[in-house]
Batch of 2 targets.
Target 1
Amino acid sequence: MRNIHSTAAEMAIALAAKEISSVELTQQHLDRIASVDDKIHAFLHIDNDGALQQAAAVDAKRASGESLSPLAGVPIAVKDILAQKGVPTTAGSKILEGWRPPYDSTVVAKLKAAGVVILGKTNMDEFAMGSSTENSAYGTTQNPWDLTRTPGGSSGGSAAAVAAFEAPLAIGTDTGGSIRQPAALTGIVGVKPTYGGVSRYGVVAYSSSLDQVGPFARTVLDTALLHEAIAGHDERDSTSINAPVPQVVAAAKRLDVKGMKIGVIKELSGSGFQAGVSARINESIELLVAAGAEIIEVSCPNFEYALAAYYLIAPSEASSNLARFDSMRYGLRVGDDGSRGAEEVMSATREAGFGKEVKRRIILGTYALSSGYYDAYYGSAQKVRTLVKQDFDKAFAKADVLISPVTPTTAFKIGEKSNDPVAMYLSDIATIPVNMAGIGGMSLPVGLADEDGLPVGLQIMAPVMQDDRFYRVGGTLEAALLSKWGKPILSNAPDLAGQK
Amino acid sequence: MAAISRDDVAHLAKLARIEMTPAELDHMATELEQILGAVKRVQEVATSDIAPTSHPLSMSNIFRDDVVKPSLTNEEALSGAPAQAEDRFKVPQILGDE
């Protein structure tokens, strides 16, 4: 085993064989974080003591011969939007600075029960509103491939941590592409499971009909192992699907796509996509054909309206969800000098505690839901949502999975789009339809763009609760690419520890 | 569509309980108009014969059994409170003086 550069599956095997202890493996990752995170800024909170205690507990259980779950002792980074008992949880916002949740989110509880060691909490755009981590109240995360570029967002800290070998696994959330887009921009695998496939209990809510928790890792198999560890029905999330978890680990190991029909979405190709992105996607299509898949073209004519609908639906839901930050029971309180009433204190706190993009979306959502405008904006957006779902239904009647690029471009420069909200929103154009329909999707790294040497992501989408299909296709394509390249994609990234 | 004025944004900010400065209101009015200009495209295809979708899953009335389960202690529930008194959340004045 090559320690921090190994896959999570290899780490798990080495731990089971007692070639390494979880305390040693955890310490190696904490050392890596200490040596590179001042350049990356993937983490908002590093839980050194808590992680080592958790690792020691797993080692003790293993020594006593207890049967352990597959990922027991392997470290993970968790997006700072999931509540973890006693550990700071800010959602990237000043309004939650210093808050230590009195309970665990279901996903964190599942990770703890599985013996997965939580290293710390990762940076993100405030309340998951953004595509670059530039909206974090605690500074921007840098892309390990090029420190002048963003890692994408909103789960940019989680993606950068995995790409920089600070953690082999990470948890993110995806409302309009916030797992898949940063995975694509950092050259790792990211999955947005089917809506309702993973519990949202204890996850700070942004847009409840779109939000979904999901896994990041450096390989398809590692992603599948983490997916199975966190998925499943939870009675504390009323939108959680009460059905068996798709067999994603078996699908990731299948390495065979013979006879599968793969639909290429006409509207998400060609013009509007960087040449180097399109070139890598086309190569992937050739490899899938060589592996025995049948490629067909499908049309989703209403996708062009999905972005507009998303930027009405998500802010509308956010304006309601974020009403809970009222300075009364937890979080920041500003201006409570005894002379001001509750409403004044609330308004002063929200002015001081929310960042620019969050205020922008709350105001936009308040407008879209206000009487006189509701039908024209929110109501129309809900109808577009129906049309997007119908496009998917028609496409999946012809194809087992659908593919497209994840993003129009490779990683963009920090500051390049931060003053132009509409340009920033466009980076989610290919990922948003998936959230609107509630289906699942994977971002798979498929090479580097010729013009800039930065990673390109292929998006693979499957119908509701058929998540195993994109693991099957992703695993097969990953193996074909690896045999073509001879080495993993991340071996092309700079060695951060050597940089000054 | 009518232009978004500073007064319009001030009204929205009041509804959303965000105390904005005049400069912020002006800036937000400009941005809001730009964003609304981009998102109003939804109206091009949203005809009256299409049913709206509010949620990806069609489910309703998810109940659990009505049994008492362990929950947060009073101390835990108050652990993040900005102010507390007598085992309760302490909040600024809510009602008027009269």
Target 2
Amino acid sequence: MNGLLTQSFLTALVAGGIVAAVPLMFTALGESVSERAGVLNIGLEGMMLLGAYLGFLGAYELHSEWLGFVAGVAGGLAGAIVMALLSVGMGLDQIVVGIAITLAGEGITSVLQQAQFKGKFPGLGNPVTVALPGLSRIPVLGHSVFDQPLLVYLGVGLLALVAWVFRATSWGLNLQAAGEKPEALDAAGISVPAVRTYAVLTAGALAGLGGAYLAIVGASTFTPFMTQGQGYIAIVIAMLARGKPLWVGVSSFVFGICLSIGTALQLTSINISGDVINMLPYIAIMAALVLFARGSYLPPALCLPYVRGGK
Amino acid sequence: MSATAAASREAAGRSAEPGPASRWWRTVVRSLAPVILALVAGGLLLLALGQNPARFYVAVWQGGVESGGWQDSAVLMAPLLLIALGLIIVFRAGIWNLGYDGQYLLGAALVAGFGPGLLERWPAPLAYAVLFGVAGCAGALWTLIPAVLKAWYETNEIITTLMMSFIGIGIANILVKGPFQDHAVNIPQTRTIPFGKLLPNLSGTRVHVGVLLALAAVVVVHYLLTRTSFGLRLSVLGANPRTAGHVGINVRRVIVTSFVWSGFLIGVAAAVDILGLWAYVRANWNPGYGNTVIPFVFLARLNPLAVVPFVAFYAVLSTGGDLAAQQANLPTDFLLVLVALILLFMTVIEFLGRRRDLGRSYLTPGLKEALRRPLFRRRPAR
């Protein structure tokens, strides 16, 4: 009997969980920033796809995963610029613009992929990983946790950085004011649209980076619609984490485990259909929404365009 | 708040508004401009991809209208119209139901699973009625959790319906690959309903009676929404939930009812589509109707009658676009880009409209403020 607690299963589960969690973590971190500033970014899914496509293309054509990540950031930023222009600059409906960006991201990346590769899905090589000396020798989990691409360590550092920005800097305060009481921010002489624009662009860049990680490290290729709703999962993670970056990391890992449990289960004798496993993250979210519904908090000015002098 | 400011500005604009002719003209501009701009922008995109846009759009017209293409377009209109109606009902109440894919596919899987057996044993009209009912109830049931969470705990329905949609798609796949699978075929799919048992066609065409049913539903829903107290309750709730509570509307009941009818109509759309056109469901199949219908529902300003020409337009674009994309060696996902462009131009025209007063907004105030209402229960008000 090949049970659940074998070393190979645990290693695969944790390693797969981390690979699946990193795109969610970057994207949800970006969403935390933009939500804090009062912009709900339903277009994350599209921005992730743009990042995934351009990231893959960059890594494939330029033979460098780092250039790929940069291209992914650029892709996410492209979507975010549209969002910033329409939703922040012109104050248009954030949900409609978000749906449009998601649809456009899905359509454009699928069309371009097809136009470029004519139905083929070329792959990339294995990503370069950095083993932390000492820690990666810990038995059972050490190798799967502490032997990651450099970007993963940077991402964890980024969580801490954003937590610090939120808690201890005037930037963090400006972001919070833009979401809580934009009038006050405006009265203090700081431009609300500017703060929100930076927040949206940050979210887009991080979503693009998450998408690029998904394509370059997670799948080693780009397939149309490959995000499969992860942009929406990231929105929920950001909401459940109540804007606290460290919780973003923790809940991303939990959802990453949900996403990767199917692959790990193939190593055991337990036979569950892939469709059941694919539903797990969504069922987990519904359960979380039902159970923790009251503990969450959103900025009062979320989704409200700011009109100076409007009352 | 800024919404009231906008409302009063709109009211001020209305009082200074000139005659009905120019108001009619403005409505036309606001409804058609986004579509035309999107087609132009899509043409530029085609040029960038090295295609001839004129040839592409001519091919769309040839495939979607000429030489019998209009019949395929009409058949496609049936599910699109029913989904549009389902969306209009919740949107009028200021509620977002974005779970249409799950609701549709659950209904479709059940109809394709039970259809062949029922149609063999029972007289066709009875079997159709049962299958329509089953699909409708499945769709309605799938809205129930988001509806109750929204009505009692104010949990944001955008997220819950999306999550339920993913779960519904998964269950539909499990059904198709499990109990409903036809083991005579290698690909996981349901048994096929025999051609002779599908919904009858109108004489001399490929257009099935489901299209008439959808058009009848348009009239019925329009009557319900504009001439009954149910429709008024929906509109009041959509305009201002607090007012709805003050004037004695049972807000919880209206939320649940509108959600259930919305899911029911989307389920029925699946039944019409499977019984009239597809006859079976393949695993992982998702026509993705809902996403493409949304912009047209807004362009029609949530008016059931006005949505018909828009849906007809999209049906032609989609039928002909599939063929044109094949001819041009493009994936059909190019149509998603066109739909996204329509949405984007819609918001831009809305912006210009606010500036130049081109008439009413596409969205009701309730929908616009859906996210001001908290995702979760709000903390006690200070």
